Amino acid sequence: MHGKKYVNVKKLVDTKKIYTIEEAVKLAKETAYAKFDASIDIAIKLNVDTTKAEQQLRGTIALPHYFGKEIKILVIDDSITEANAKKAGASYFGGDEKIAEIKDGWLDFDVLITSPKFMPKLSKLGKILGPKGLMPNPKLGTVSTKILDTIKEFKSGKLTYRTDTYGNVHMTIGKKSAKNEDMVENINALISFIQSKRPSTVKGEYVKTIYISASMGPSIRIK
């Protein structure tokens, strides 16, 4: 059951129309009725079978403009110093003692970056880290031999993406306060990137639908 504010802004959206990206961004900002600086999110529905490993999309992307939250990075490594890790942008740093804290239930971080050396120990925490999407993975760039470079990349806006069970990719592409052209650029970059990752086994239409919306606003379909 939606409230009166949502119902009112929903009237501004023609559900039968497929908007241009520029039109949709403008409309998403107009229908963002929350008092805070709402995020503008995108949902891309793909024609993929996520029960097949080769059709599961997962990786990282750096959009032209970053509008996400300030992320907390945990680094588990012993090849660099804590001072250098934190200078690069890490929030937490350690080794075996941090692994022990995670084992005891501590998960106050958004990204875990480590070196291959520590993966045998971290892999034993799969039941804790896996469901939260925090397990380091070479495909995501979070297992690296260049720890400082990796910290800087994620701190500056490198994002992880993955298809959910239904073949959707969700991501924040802007804020209500952001420039329209910056969000348009982000959307175009993301769509081009997702199209470049089309699995070779997908037949027919690949991108089925694309919607954007404010975090507390109605969905708007785009071309």
Number of helices: 8
Strand content: 15-25%
What is the number of beta strands?
A: 9
> Radius of gyration in whole Å, from Cα?
20 Å
Order of helices and strands: HHEEEHEHEHHHEEHEE
Shape: globular
The separation of the N and C termini measures 29 Å
Level of helix content? Answer: 25-40%
Stretches with pLDDT under 50, minimum 5 residues: none
Helix/strand/pairing category? alpha/beta
Largest sheet: 4 strands, antiparallel
Order of strands across the main sheet: 7-1-8-9
Q: Mean pLDDT, nearest integer?
A: 93
Describe this structure in words.
Helix content is 30%, strand content 22%. The chain has 223 residues and is an alpha/beta fold. Helix 3 links the parallel strand 3 and strand 4. The longest helix has 17 residues, at 180-196. The model has no long low-confidence stretch (mean pLDDT 93).
Keywords:
about 220 residues; alpha/beta; four-stranded antiparallel sheet; three-stranded parallel sheet; globular
Task: Please give a quick description of this structure.
The chain is of the alpha/beta class. It is built from eight helices and nine strands.
Blueprint of the fold:
Layout: H1 4-10, H2 21-30, E1 39-46, E2 58-62, E3 73-76, H3 82-88, E4 92-94, H4 96-103, E5 111-114, H5 119-122, H6 126-129, H7 147-155, E6 158-162, E7 168-175, H8 180-196, E8 207-214, E9 220-222
Parallel strand pairs: 3-4, 3-5
Antiparallel strand pairs: 1-7, 1-8, 2-6, 8-9
